[in-house]
Amino acid sequence: MPSKLRGSRRCGRCRRSPRNSCAPVGKALHPEELVGPGSMHEEAGRDLLLERGFQSALARFAATHASWDGPAATIEELLVSTADKVWKDKRVPHLEDRLVRELASATGREPWEEYLALDDSPVRLGADAGRRLAFQSAFPVRP
Questions:
Q1: What is the DSSP string of 3-42?
Q2: What is the C-alpha separation between 120 and 112, in angstroms, rounded?
Q3: How far apart are the first and last CA of the chain?
Q4: Where are the beta strands (DSSP E) in 39-126?
Q5: CA-CA distance, 63 to 47, in Å (whole number)?
Q6: For residues 14 and 55, what is the distance between their CA atoms, to the nearest angstrom?
Q7: What are 47-66's pLDDT values in tens digits?
Q8: 36-52 pLDDT, tens per residue?
Q9: In angstroms, what CA-CA distances link 42 with 62, 93, 113?
Q10: What is the C-alpha separation between 116 and 26, in angstroms, rounded?
Q11: At 96, is the pLDDT very low, low, confident or very high (cuts 50, 70, 90)?
């Protein structure tokens, strides 16, 4: 992975260049999951990132972004899971409530303060989901 990122275009999730982004890399191996349900891309994505030299502490998010409801989910995993939902303009109240509680615990602020600080971001970022998803859908999954 290059030490210096070039260009001004960055991944909306991790702010890396598109070539090195955290985009759903496992779906490159399971493209049917771009247009349908499935979770095989999660572990495949983690393994692919590890094979390409990503640190395991970062690569794990490819495999854990859908398991936010487990008791051991970290605040980082909750943030990544929330970003995954917001990317598609989906709001998951239970996930957001859990994230707000964890943020409040980490900052010492009241949960309602964290909610107010967080609530506008999913709305603002989700507003562009239709364009992003339409762009993604414009490319055939199989030749």
A1: SS--SS---TTT---GGG--S-GGGGT-GGGGTS---HHH
A2: 13
A3: 30
A4: none
A5: 9
A6: 14
A7: 998 999 999 888 888 888 88
A8: 788 888 888 899 989 99
A9: 5, 23, 33
A10: 34
A11: very high
